[in-house]
Design brief:
Chain lengths: 432, 136
């Protein structure tokens, strides 16, 4: 029986039963624009922008797009490319390369790299400048592997109140991968850093249309030579055991464990030792946070010029609900598993706790496999709601430096460092 | 009279129950013409075993800039360094913030937009993309 026949037979049945007054049944046949009171809601598209209130969705609200070497991801911008990873890809500790978020600053993103010509240069204030091709990087040095979270400084920017301009990320401007490559320190030692040097500057293949010397022309980042993080940095040619997607920085990318992604230069090609402060826009003006606890300030204090800023550095501790995601009801009395991830840039995550009363009481979640201090750590907690209703679940993580997540919003003009306790509303229905 | 009311009530109950039986049977097979996005799959690209590693061109998204005076200036000048999606992605921003953003493009990033066009762009953004004015 095809659909039309089925409709007719039902209509006939209705006629026989004489239930013309029953709008519930009849209105279904009137056409797609008429919704029955109890009909399933149509699958409408999400709004195309959010604000002036906060974005209440887990992810940003853009459409799915397919970019080279990627599965459909959420579009923020197409030129330069900025893509967000959908929530469900965080069910595992490692984020697949093809789903890994993308964030470029300048529109000149490489479409191709010829490895016959490409060389990583170590130059500037060094005794012996080096130019190493990929085979030399792969075979002249001992490969090291490290799991590390790469999170955009502006991840979750769309939560801020008042809203601030910038890429309006939801929570998906982050990912975790197993990075394999050469220790930055070995490269610096081989080149021989001259005494009196201050910084190491990193430059990739990305270029912009702006005039030379401005932030719209080159994206440059630097780290102090005395910064212990340099000993942990890797120049990575493998990401989860595969070559990096072009959009994630093929052929090599700098990995700065525990630091925000702004330092993880993609398509890294120049490592430059400086003996003077780095005055370029991306260090002096961009990616700076208030020198206050949690990087918090107010629009009033910014306006009054009271805010002293410092370059953004380490990832504050965060934790997320990944599933259930609130899109389905859970029958009362059913035991379900709450699952998510946690990470920090300050040592290991030592505790994850969940609350089902909006944060009044907390119970410990079970931590998943430990892939190292800089990795996502999965967590799970079994949960049963005995009575129907709306539950506000909350999750918070604590790291080994005793840092934990605030339950107050963060605000700074750049929209950085958001790590407020995450909440997930779950609707529990009657089971009988 | 009382009997008649009771009878009508009984008949109504039966009718409602009968409708319920039918309705229960109807609770499947609903489809909606709601417009959800569909994404075409990318065709596999031809790879050669040489030293050149390529990604196909990055696709440009259609951006629906609000109509109005200054729209063309945005398309010409802003588009040099970034797609207009940078504008439509933003939450509604205040007039002062839009002015500061456009001035930043000129002063900090050297966009070099002529003064007249700069003013047109600022007015366009203020007229279309603040909390009071944003429609789409």
């Amino acid at each position: 029986m095809n659909a039309t026949e089925r409709c007719l037979s039902r209509r006939g049945l209705l006629k026989i039963l004489g239930v013309a007054s029953s709008g519930i049944a009849v209105r279904r046949w009137l056409g797609p624009d008429v919704t029955m009171a109890q009909a399933p809601a149509p699958g409408n598209a999400i709004e195309s922008f959010t604000g002036p209130g906060a974005n209440l969705h887990w992810n940003s609200v853009g459409p799915y797009v397919t970019e080279p070497q990627k599965v459909p991801l959420l579009l923020l911008t197409d030129r330069p490319v900025q893509l967000e990873t959908p929530r469900h890809y965080f069910r595992t500790a490692f984020t697949p390369n093809e789903a890994f978020y993308v964030r470029w600053h300048l529109e000149g993103i490489p479409n191709s790299v010829d490895l016959r010509n490409w060389k990583l240069q170590i130059e500037g204030n060094v005794n012996k400048p080096l130019a190493l091709n990929l085979p030399e990087l792969m075979h002249k040095f001992k490969p090291v592997s490290l799991a590390a979270v790469n999170q955009c400084s502006g991840n979750s920017r769309s939560r801020l109140q008042p809203r601030v301009p910038g890429a309006q990320w939801g929570n998906g401007a982050m990912g975790n991968a197993m990075w394999t490559g050469v220790r930055l320190r070995e490269l610096l030692d081989m080149a021989g850093v001259k005494s009196g040097s201050l910084l190491v500057q990193f430059q990739g293949l990305e270029t912009g249309q702006g005039p030379e010397g401005l932030g719209s022309n080159l994206f440059l980042k630097s780290l102090g030579l005395g910064n212990p993080v340099l000993d942990e940095c890797i120049v990575a040619y493998l990401m989860n055991g595969e070559p990096l997607p072009m959009l994630n920085g093929f052929p090599v990318r700098l990995v700065v464990p525990g630091y925000f992604a702004t330092y993880w230069t993609k398509c890294l090609t120049w490592i430059r030792v400086l003996n003077a402060p780095d005055e370029n826009f991306w260090m002096k003006t961009g990616y700076r946070v208030p020198d206050t606890p949690l990087g918090n300030t107010t629009p009033e204090d910014v306006k009054a010029g009271k805010v002293k800023t410092v370059p953004i550095e380490r990832l504050p501790v965060r934790s997320f609900f990944i599933s259930p995601d609130g899109s389905s009801k859970i029958p009362a009395g059913m035991n379900v598993m709450l699952r998510g991830i946690a990470f920090t840039g300050f040592g290991r995550v030592i505790r994850v706790e969940v609350s089902d009363d909006g944060g009044k009481s907390w119970m410990a979640a079970k931590l998943g496999e430990d892939h190292g201090a800089y990795s996502f750590r999965t967590w799970e907690a079994s949960w049963t709601a005995m009575s129907p209703g709306r539950y506000s679940l909350a999750v918070r993580a604590t790291d080994e430096k005793s840092n934990t997540q605030p339950d107050e919003p963060i605000w700074n003009p750049g929209g950085y460092l958001w790590n407020r306790i995450e909440r997930q509303e779950i609707v529990v229905g009657n089971a009988s | 009279m009382k009997n008649r009311v009771q009878t009508i009530f009984l008949v109504m109950c039966i009718l409602v129950m009968a409708a319920g039986v039918v309705y229960a049977d109807l609770k499947k097979g609903y489809y909606s013409p709601a417009e959800l996005g569909s994404v075409r799959q990318a065709a596999p690209i031809k790879l050669l075993p040489d030293s050149n590693y390529q990604a196909p061109a990055y696709p440009v998204a259609a951006v629906d800039l609000a109509p109005g005076d200054g729209r063309q200036d945005v398309q010409i000048y802003c588009n040099t360094c970034h797609s207009p999606g940078y504008i439509t992605m933003q939450p509604p921003l205040s007039s002062a913030t839009w002015e500061a953003e456009v001035n930043k493009m000129n002063k900090t990033f050297g966009a070099g937009i002529p003064e007249e066009n700069t003013q047109k762009i600022i007015l366009y953004l203020q007229a279309r993309y603040t909390a009071e004015t944003r429609k789409q």
